[in-house]
Amino acid sequence: MESADYIPLRYLNEFIYCPRLGYLEFAWGEFEENEYTIDGEIKHKRIDEIQGRDGDAPAERMTSVFLSSEKLGLIGRIDLLECEGGEFIPVEYKRGKIPKGRPQGYDPERVQLCAQGLLLSDNDYPSTRGYIYYSDSHKRIEVLFDDELKGKTLSLIEEFRKTLAGDEPPPPLDQSPKCARCSLNRVCIPDETSALAQVRGDEEDAKKAPSKVRRLLPAVDDNRPLYVANPGTRVGKEGERVVLKCGGEELGTVRFNEVSQVCLYGNVQLSSQATREFMLRGIPVVYFSGGGWFYGIAHSNYSKNAFLRIRQVSMYLDDHERLRVSRQLIRGKIRNCRTLVRRNLRTAESKSIAEELGRLANRALRSETLQELLGIEGQAAHLYFKTFAGLIRGKREGSLEFEFTTRKRRPATDPVNAMLSYGYSLLLKDCFITLLSVGFDPYIGFYHQPKYGKPALALDLMEEFRPIVVDSVVLTSINNGEVRESDFVSRMGRVIMKERARTGLIEAYERRMNSTVKHPLFGYTVSYRRVLEVQARLLARLVCGEIDLYVPFCTR
User: Fold this and answer.
1) Which of 28, 240, 405, 466 has minimal CB crowding within 10 Å?
2) Distance between CA atoms of residues 556 and 553, nearest Å
3) Residues 6 or more apart from 251 whose CB is under 8 A from it?
């Protein structure tokens, strides 16, 4: 057998606990830490420290015994192996206490232990029983490898192998309490997937999905991005802290476990020690030009889910599927543009503009080609940015401060366009990182055409978030007086943001991303950063065929 064909013992345990969990971890290579996995890892490190068995030391013991069997198709490590009178007894260490009312333990542990016994026997080490040691109880229970348990174990091994041969993961558990403790609940999104899996119509049908959707994760992530934009700054490592220095002077420190990503602007140096620590912890490092142009990203290990990327390419090559996804993306963008206009422009004209944007959003769903959809988006963008100037209240009579006529990207000819472009680069960075973490190739999109160096899928994902995140941040920064005319420099028709304006916009952007909002479809309250991840994972569920409809995030 090829080494990849062997099923590791630990994944067999996960499969019995939850078939979807076993599939995601083994077939797709997904893994996330949480308090339970970390605690279990710490407990396993103490195996060598535990002496004797209920006060009686065995004649012989070995730890971390690694075995495989071609006949069984299994491979794995036995925590502790004891030998008494020619019999080999595996001992499996588990966190927690001995389960009440289950003197023989839970099925996942029993089957995993029995599989270890089968591995031993197949390698000519006779084994008829084993023990499960519960670290919190400091006791072990005996498990006999009788014919019933052996038959059940072999049957589950075969069932797992058939599941792995399928193209899609098993469906999520239905409202199971296991999901709250599962380390992969943010990857699996069980309730959201179950709710949308029932929908075979349009977005209105999705809103009537009967499944109750729980919020299984905290609303806001405690970790924060670290932005370093001061030229000449050196990012280094001292113990468990990231240290920022410039010219020998310490600018500040932050703990590694408080950082979610590192964003470096312009002439900033990163030490090899800090780089290695970021890679070990899975913290991406993002590089920008001094003016905010997104250069690229350094990351330790991208997602191992090659199947998702294969299906992503297949969907890109299918014109019908590309159009189906693109319709929803652009409809979401136009609807959010409409929401921003309705919130900030309360005039008679705004009502007619909002109605026209609503009509264009509905037309986007009926478009028959990508070219037609592109034309509809262009009409909506022209109407939206024509109205955008009326949303700005920071203008003064007789001054060019924050004058805005139309959207101009390169070069930005006014402060508003400069702020919009800078804000979009921040959003693009977050979309890029999120898509990588989910397992996508950010350069193969559906609506945006792939070009050399163009992160087309990241641009796709950010469409629905442009108005409600970046445009909203820019308007708030101007209307609240957080930026001033003196924060910009005009050179040969190009407007450049000074450091104060860039820093202020980054702070405002992060406030927005960490602010909470009620999800219009699922009903729970989460931050915009969490919403971005949920939408990316729903897109992955669509690409993998688990759901039939991608519903964009549209605020009310």
Assistant:
1) 240
2) 10
3) 230, 233, 244, 245
Among 375, 317, 19, 378, residue whose Cα is nearest residue 164 = 19
Give the E-state strand segments of 98-209 in sequence order.
129-134, 139-144
For residue 461, pLDDT beyond 90: yes
Q: Which of 543, 423, 434, 545 is nearest to 475 (CA)?
A: 423
Q: What are phi and psi of 528, to 5 degrees?
A: -60, -30
Which DSSP category does 522 fall into?
T
Check whether the bond before 169 is cis (ω within 30° of 0).
Answer: no
Q: What pLDDT is attached to residue 153?
A: 94
Check: pTM over 0.85? Answer yes or no. Answer: yes
Residue ranges and CATH numbers for the domains of the chain are 3-164 (3.90.320.10), 224-298 (3.100.10.20), 306-543 (1.20.120.920)
Does residue 529 carry a pLDDT above 60?
A: yes
Residue 488: phi and psi, rounded to 5, are -130, 155
CA-wise closest residue to 356 among 385, 379, 333:
379
Structure confidence at residue 353 as a pLDDT band (50, 70, 90): confident
Q: Among residues 406, 432, 429, which one has the least CA distance to residue 417?
A: 406
Provide the residue type at 326 as one letter: S
